[in-house]
Structure formats: C-alpha cells, structure tokens
Fold NadR/Ttd14 AAA domain-containing protein.
Amino acid sequence: MSKHYRTGLVVGKFSPLHSGHRYLIDTATAACEQVLILSYSRPEFAGCTSAVRQQWLNDGWPQHQCVVVDAAQACRLGLAMPDNNASDLQQRQFCAELIDRTLGQPIDAVFSSEDYGQGFADHLAQHWQRPVVSVLVDRDRIRHPISGTALRAAPSADWQSTDVLAAQRCRRIALIGAESTGKTSLSQWLAEQRGWPWVAEFGRQHWEDCGGVLSSGDLLTIARTQVDLENEAVALAIREGHSAVICDTTPLTTLIYHQLMFPEPPPPELIALAERPYHQLWLCAADFPLVQDGTRSPEAFRQEQQALYESELTNRQLCALTLHGSFEQRRAHLLRNVPAA
C-alpha cells in the first residue's frame, strides 16, 4: 500500500508517553514512508527525563528516527532550547533548526492532535520554501481522552504501557549540600537500608584523578558524567523493579562549585544540566563541625557554599527538605520521610 507522504513529523513532550501519543505516532507511521519523532521539554519532569523518553520511543518505534533532547543536549548542537511557556514562534524556530541538524532534510507533513499544527506547518513551509501539510489527529480526544498533565499527577496503567508506568514510579532522590555535611555517608547508608541503587559522586573521583586541579571544562565533564551515571542507575532500577535510586549530589552542585571557583560565567551546558529535576531533594545543613580530611576547603568556603545552595533553591523554586542535627538524627529523619515503596 502506497504512503501519502515521504517524511512525517511528530513533536511532543511525551511526559509520559501515553496511548494518545501512540495513536498519533501510529497514524503518522501508516501515512508516511519515514517518521521523525522529536521530543523536548524545558523544564523536564521527574520520571520523564530525556534518557527515559528516548528509551520509550526507541522501544516503541525502532523503525523511526527518534530524537530526544534536553536543554544540555541542545547546547551541544549549538541550539538554545526555549522554555515550555515560550512563544509559538520560538518553539517553531527551534524545531526547524533541530530538524536541520538531525534529519538534515525537510519534512512533508506535521502530525498533531492540537490546534498548533497548521501554524507550525506554515512556519516550516516558509523555513524550507516548500509545502508542508498539517494533519490533525483526534483533536477532541475522542479515541483517547487523556493528557500528560493528568498522568503526571496520577500515573495509571489504564493509559500507559508497563515500562512507562515503571519508569514513572521509579523515584530519583538526591542529597545536596556543602562540603562535610554528610551527603555521601547518608546517601550510601539510605541506599543500603532500602536496597536501592546508589549513584556515587563522580566529582571527587575526577578531582583526585586530576591531582586536585580542575578547569572549567573539567566541571562540565563532571556534570555530564554524573548525569550518565544516574541514567545508568535509573535504567538498572527499572529493570530490577526498584522503586527509587539515591543520588549523592546533582549537577547543581557542580554549577555551584563553578560559581565559587572561577570568575568567568559557567558554560551554558552546565547551567542547563543543573536544571535536572528530582522527585525529592534533601539539603544537608552545615550545622555541625567541618571534618577536615586533608582535602576540605576552610569553614568559610563551606558556609559560602551552603548560602549558594539556599539561594539557588529559592531562585529555582525548588522545595528541598532539610536534614539537621547529628548523623543519627539525620538517618532517623530520612527513614521516616523516604517511603520504602
């Protein structure tokens, strides 16, 4: 049976991927010789990071080119990803440039289930100076009356496949805070108590490998690697049925180190990596004496670090839980407030 179009396009957050998305992509598949599936979101949603969405799309449609990018990956392509609430024009131009860099050729039809489709197709047609058709699919959600917003609020097996539901229910819990506030000991202990994968801090290892001297580029490497290690741990947790992973630090920590160590602005990619979302953040307070192991900075640096954490969390409107007191008190507080399932 002949196809109506050579190349079709489907764009979405897919956060999470649900039956309505599947119907849209399958409709495009039936009508096109090839389909480009683009997914991006800024901010991303906990449980629906770019690595997880990439796996969902690869598993569902291995015959198609599936391009999933977060803000940091867009930086590597030389693009500035717009926020989710940015204008239609910004979204359309970003998609056009992303298609140019990934597919390397124009598309013939835009498949969507929302009213933006025609304006998007018109913009792409002008961008490439060739016709682009808009195909509207199940606009009124008659076949699949569901939304990503509803599923993020209440994950349901009724509208998602088992792998998508498992990924949504696998929480990423991170401990952050200044030097010598117990992040490593507490995160490793909690992971052992719960039997969950633990993501170690790569920065310390890289610092030792570099002989204690780091450049701005080293900090970007640290943040990239930390995210890679975390993605690996999440994939393992999903495969083995764990309900969470515990992270000793986040890329926000690396960004704060950059702000304290270097006069020049952080690389845009590092700023983007620090946006990475978590289901639960714990801020370890600097309210007990610094333990000097020969590598720690002075107390004044620790307090400056802690102040930066607090200001960054406030500016980003992130609700972090705080761990105060002795190690025993912190451990007890974690066990009370981090559910086992």
